[in-house]
Predict the structure.
Amino acid sequence: MVKRAYPEKEKRMIQYWIFSTALGKAGIVVSEKGVCRVILPGWSKEKIQNFIKDQYPESKPGKAPAPKRVQEAINYIERYFCGSIEEMKFSLDLSKLGEFQKKVLELVSKIEPGETRSYSWLAERLGNKKVVRAVAQALAHNPVPLFIPCHRVIGKDGSLKGFSAPGGVNLKNFLLKLEQRLKDKARTKTPL
């Protein structure tokens, strides 16, 4: 009888960094595939660290200086809260998400800064007007806010509804106003 060797479960290397922004401490969790979690400002360093350890018990604090791809993502977040919203793409690790949530987040990632769409608009684009609550739940569990801008999704009536990131609806309102100001500023610039 031949014994079969079964490979051990693949262990992912997951590291995190906690850093300062203009609004307070933020966090980023990265696997070898890309960014798998962003914690927006609103919590203390200890609360961010506890959240990361709860969600990613195998994670380790990243060493300084952070690898180039991680530092670029951190810099993007820092500049964002200072009012600089650039068009950048980052490798994201969304491997733990279900297919429906991935579809929702893919649609949301196409919403431009300064623009908003409703939960029902997303449901219609997914081909089923009745999945509005499922869309809202998918967005409530978006692990990479800013990189996938779930704050740009509002109620059909224009209300902000919920926002599960630290700071809640107040942070959502801040992000939308920041983006609208930048969009208005860009629109009013006239060429020389």
Notes: Confidence is low (pLDDT under 50) at residues 1-10. Residues 99-188 form a domain with the Arc Repressor Mutant, subunit A fold (CATH 1.10.10.10). Residues 114 and 179 are 5 Å apart (CA to CA). The radius of gyration is 18 Å.
